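User: Some background: our group keeps a shared notebook of sequences we're curious about, and every so often someone picks one and asks for a predicted structure to add to the entry. Today it's my turn. The entry only has the sequence so far, pasted here. Could you supply the structure so I can complete it?
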Amino acid sequence: MAKVSVIGAGSWGTAIAKVLSDNGHEVMVWSHREEEVRALDEKRENVSKLPGVRLSEEIVFTAVLEDAVRGMELCVLAVPSTAVRGTARKMAPHVRSGQIVLNLAKGIEESTLMILTDILEQELQGVNVAVLSGPSHAEEVGRRIPTTAVVGAKDRQTAEWIQNIFMNERFRVYTSPDMLGIELGGALKNVIALAAGVADGLGCGDNTKAALITRGIAEMSRLGVAMGGHIETFNGLTGIGDLIVTCASVHSRNRKAGYLIGQGKTMEQAMEEVKMVVEGVYSAKAAKKLAHQYQVSMPIVEAVNQVLFEGKSAREAMEELMLRDKKLEHPELPWK
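Assistant: Of course. Here's the predicted structure to add to the notebook entry:
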């Protein structure tokens, strides 16, 4: 049994707390909102964010960040990507050297173009940072629907220790040394999922969805490999796996926001209606900047930025994607 804290009481943090508690670990969940802590403690259910998922009486809830950090063998960071740096800064006085901090958020910081594990290493000097990602909607994980994920760490021992903490018959975890690829896959797929949602909102069909997923993973892979990630990662759970589920699932907030935009709502209206953080909106600008920095072609990402921030209509952006210059699908393949 391990002493584990979950920093963040959203839907994903709640679901992961349930996984860890069901595995027999001593779990504490932190929220910055005292009223949320009281409600979770009393009702043993995250009524607004993960309704219907019963939480063990053994889980402890707190609004005191120091209590959720000091003495913990593992701190699981489950806050939105935009809150990672600020939360880490508040954690910094309480962490110890070598403490394991596991990132669950998916995003790229727009102002610095840093991945989230790099931010954690910058803000939490001396900790052992890792990342867990994959096709894993909280709504299904909380209900113990079979799910797979991948954990990345700098050394095998840390990755395998985290793997053992999380693994059970309904939550299978693989390990990988490619932290950069895992982080980029998790962030970039949200941008492609916005495009998939827009297509749905425009009334497009399965053909369009398949095209966006296929060409989307090509864009993600090109940028990821250019930045130092590995193609195998983008062909795995945190690449094509997470992309499929985020583009297709009714649980996907990125797909839902895109759908609303495709139906004519503004980005702000769509985000307000989704009522949760739409990570792809925050990662879209960063993805475009990285594509330009690494001189990588990412036409879907460009189109998403045009719709979100430049006033282009969703239908016009879709038509322009279809009418781009003729291309080879795989330029590296030789003709006989």
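Suggested note for the entry: The first helix runs from residue 11 to 22. The chain has a mean pLDDT of 95.
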